[in-house]
Design a protein that fits this description.
The protein is mostly helical. It has 4 domains: 62 residues, DNA polymerase, domain 1 (Orthogonal Bundle), CATH 1.10.150; 152 residues, no CATH class; 72 residues, no CATH class; 141 residues, no CATH class. It contains 23 helices and 8 strands. Strands 5-6-7-8 form a 4-stranded mixed sheet, sandwiched between helices. Strands 1-2 form a two-stranded antiparallel ribbon. The chain has a two-stranded antiparallel sheet with strand order 3-4. A hairpin with a 2-residue loop joins β1 and β2. α9 crosses α11. The longest helix has 23 residues. It is globular and about 75 Å long. About 19% of the residues have low confidence.
Length: 552
C-alpha cells in the first residue's frame, strides 16, 4: 500500500483519524501485515501504542468495530423480504411490478431482490419494495433486516406502522418517551410473529443494528458521549417487553414457534466475571528482571528520601519510572497501609493523578472539571423539575450560597445524583468536625473499607476541607471539592477496589458521564447478576437526562 495511493483502507483511516499523521499509521499497519479494512478487526490496543495515544487508539478501534458490524448491502449477506411468487408462472410469464411503498429508493435499489435460478434468465427483476419514511436519512443508512429462526425480521415493516417517526428519523432527533415505548412494542410484536422465545443474543443483534442505523435517535448517550454499548437500554426494553408478554403462558411457550424439531430452547446461564482491570489500559505492565531490579533500586532510594525535604522533581520522575513495580505491588492485594510503607510518595496528590492517568489514559481532574462546567447547571435544572425529593438539598445549597460558600453547588450535584439513584449520601461522604485530626477522621470512617470523603464542616454542603480515607487510612487533605472528588473516584482504580453495592450506581454514573470511562463489557462491582454491562438505574437516568435535553 503506497503512501500516496488512495485506497479504501487509507480513506477509512483519514476519515476516522482526521487530526493524526495518517502516513505513520499506514506505515505501522503495513508492518503489522494489515492489507484491507477487514484486517483491522484483528488489531489490539497494544499494536498501535507507538503511533497513537490511548484515547485515539480506542476511538480508532471503536470505529473499526462499527465498520465490522455494519449491515452489508450485498445479496450474499443481506436477505431481502421475499416477494411471494407462483412457482408455475416464474419461467413463462413476465413478472408484474411489486406494489411499492416509499423508503429510500436511491439506496435500497442498490440491493436487488433475490430471484429464483429458474427465473433469472427469463424474467425482468422486480423493483424493491419500498416504504415511506425519511428518504433523505434512510438513503444514507440501509434499513436492516435480521435472520431469526429462518424467518425474517424486517425493520421496514415496523416503520410502516409508525409514520409518526418520520420527523424524528429525518431530523436525527431522539424519540419522545411514548413514541419510544410504542416502537418497542411494535418491534417485539413483530418478532413474536416469528418466535415467542427470541434469545437475548438475537434481541441484541436487532438492537445493535437499529442503533447503528439510527444512532442519534436510539443510542444511549449524554452530551454526545456513547454510554456502554450504546444499545443497552433498547435491548433491556425489548427483553422486558417480551418477558412480560410471556408471563403466565403455558410451558409450551418455552418452545420456539415454528421449530421443526420441537426441541426446547434452553440457554446456558453465564455468570458475569469481575475483572480487576475494568476500565484500565495499563493495569499490569510487563517488565524484565533487569527492569524490575532497576525499579526496585529506585523504590529504595525514594523510601530513604521520605521524611526529609526531597527534590520533588526527582520524586515525580522516580515514581513515573517505577509505575510497573507499583502496579505489581498493588495488584498483589497489599493493604493501603503496607503500600504506604513501601511507597510513601504514592498517596501524594500529584503522584495519584499521574498514576491514574497512566492507568486509565484519562486526566481525571480535567475530566471532572470539564463535566461540571458543561453539565452541572443543566443537571440541577433537571433534578429540580423531575425529582422533588431533592428539594431539601437545593434549599440548603441556596442558603450556603448566600453565605458566600459557592463551593456548595458542586457537592450538591453529587447529592442530587445519589438521591435520584436511590443511594444514601453516607455511602461516599462522612461529616466530621472541622477541627478533627486524621486519627479522629479514621475512627469516624471505620467499618467501611472502600474510599470515602470526610467532609470537615457542619454539613456536606458547608464543608470547606476534605480528607480522603481509603482502607481505613487518611491519605490526603484537600481544599478543593473537585480535586477531592476526582481522587475519591481515582482511588477505586489505583488501589484495585470494587464499587460498593451501597454506591455502585453513583460511581458508575460518574465513571461514564463525568470521567468518560465507558467499557461495553465487564463490571467493577461484586454483584454478579446483571443483565447489562451498564447499571439499570444509570441507564434510566441517562435516558431521562437525554430526553430532558430535547425539552429543556
Amino acid at each position: 500500500m503506497s503512501l500516496n495511493e488512495s485506497t479504501p483502507l487509507k480513506t477509512f483511516i483519514e476519515k476516522t483519524l482526521p487530526d493524526v499523521d495518517n502516513n505513520s499509521v499506514v506505515q505501522k499497519l503495513e508492518q503489522l501485515g494489515v492489507e484491507t479494512i477487514e484486517d483491522l478487526k484483528f488489531l489490539q490496543e497494544s499494536d498501535l501504542s507507538g503511533v497513537l495515544k490511548p484515547v485515539q487508539t480506542r476511538k480508532f478501534l471503536y470505529n473499526v468495530h462499527l465498520e465490522d458490524s455494519k449491515p452489508s448491502t450485498s445479496v450474499s449477506s443481506v436477505t431481502e423480504c421475499p416477494v411471494p411468487q407462483s412457482p408455475i408462472s416464474q419461467s413463462h410469464v413476465p413478472q408484474s411490478p411489486v406494489p411499492q411503498s416509499p423508503i429510500s429508493q436511491s439506496h435500497v435499489a442498490q440491493s436487488p431482490v433475490p430471484q429464483s435460478p429458474i427465473s433469472q434468465s427469463h424474467v425482468p427483476q422486480s423493483p424493491v419494495p419500498q416504504s415511506p419514511i425519511s428518504q433523505s436519512h434512510v438513503a444514507q443508512s440501509p434499513v436492516p433486516q435480521f435472520q431469526s429462526h429462518s424467518r425474517l425480521f424486517c425493520l421496514e415493516d415496523v416503520l410502516k406502522k409508525m409514520p409518526e417517526l418520520q420527523d424524528s428519523l429525518q431530523n436525527n432527533n431522539r424519540l419522545q418517551a411514548d413514541n419510544r415505548r410504542q416502537f418497542v412494542r411494535e418491534v417485539v410484536d413483530h418478532i413474536r410473529k416469528i418466535s415467542f422465545n427470541c434469545t437475548k443474543k438475537q434481541f441484541e443483534e436487532i438492537a445493535k443494528n437499529i442503533v447503528f442505523t439510527y444512532p442519534n435517535t436510539f443510542e444511549d448517550r449524554i452530551d454526545k458521549i456513547r454510554i456502554g454499548t450504546g444499545y443497552d437500554s433498547l435491548l433491556k426494553q425489548f427483553i422486558s417487553r417480551n418477558e412480560n408478554l410471556n408471563r403466565g403462558k403455558s410451558p409450551h411457550s418455552n418452545f420456539v414457534r415454528g421449530s421443526e424439531t420441537g426441541q426446547q430452547k434452553t440457554e446456558p446461564k453465564k455468570r458475569k466475571v469481575v475483572h480487576d482491570s475494568y476500565g484500565c489500559i495499563s493495569w499490569a505492565p510487563s517488565m524484565s528482571s533487569d527492569e524490575e531490579s532497576e525499579q526496585e533500586k529506585i523504590r529504595e532510594e525514594l523510601k530513604e528520601h521520605y521524611g526529609s525535604e526531597p527534590d520533588w522533581n526527582l520524586v515525580y520522575k522516580g515514581m513515573e519510572a517505577t509505575y510497573a513495580l507499583q502496579r505489581r505491588h498493588i495488584n498483589s492485594g497489599e493493604s493501603v497501609k503496607h503500600l504506604r510503607e513501601e511507597w510513601p510518595f504514592l498517596v501524594d496528590q500529584h503522584v495519584l493523578f499521574t498514576h491514574c492517568k497512566e492507568l486509565t489514559g484519562i486526566d481525571l481532574l480535567q475530566a471532572v472539571k470539564n463535566s461540571f462546567e458543561k453539565k452541572a447547571s443543566r443537571m440541577l435544572r433537571f433534578f429540580r423539575s423531575r425529582t422533588p425529593f431533592v428539594e431539601p438539598y437545593l434549599t440548603a445549597a441556596e442558603k450556603e450560597k448566600e453565605d458566600n460558600n459557592l463551593t456548595a453547588i458542586l457537592p450538591l450535584v453529587i447529592l442530587c445524583l445519589q438521591s435520584s439513584l436511590g443511594e444514601k449520601d453516607d455511602s461516599l461522604f462522612v461529616v466530621v468536625d472541622e477541627m478533627s485530626s486524621n486519627e479522629e477522621v479514621e475512627n469516624a470512617c471505620s467499618g467501611k473499607s472502600w474510599p470515602r470523603l470526610a467532609m470537615l464542616g457542619a454539613s456536606i454542603l458547608a464543608a470547606k476541607e476534605y480528607i480522603l480515607v481509603v482502607d481505613g487510612e487518611a491519605i490526603g487533605r484537600y481544599n478543593s471539592f473537585l480535586c477531592a472528588l476526582s481522587l475519591l473516584f481515582g482511588s477505586f482504580y489505583v488501589f484495585n477496589i470494587q464499587y460498593p453495592n451501597e454506591a455502585v450506581a453513583t460511581l458508575e454514573f460518574i465513571q461514564r458521564c463525568f470521567i468518560g470511562i465507558n467499557p461495553d463489557a465487564g463490571l467493577k462491582t461484586s454483584k454478579k447478576k446483571r443483565t447489562s454491562s451498564v447499571n439499570a438505574k444509570v441507564l434510566r437516568l441517562i435516558n431521562e437526562l437525554a430526553d430532558y435535553e430535547w425539552t429543556d
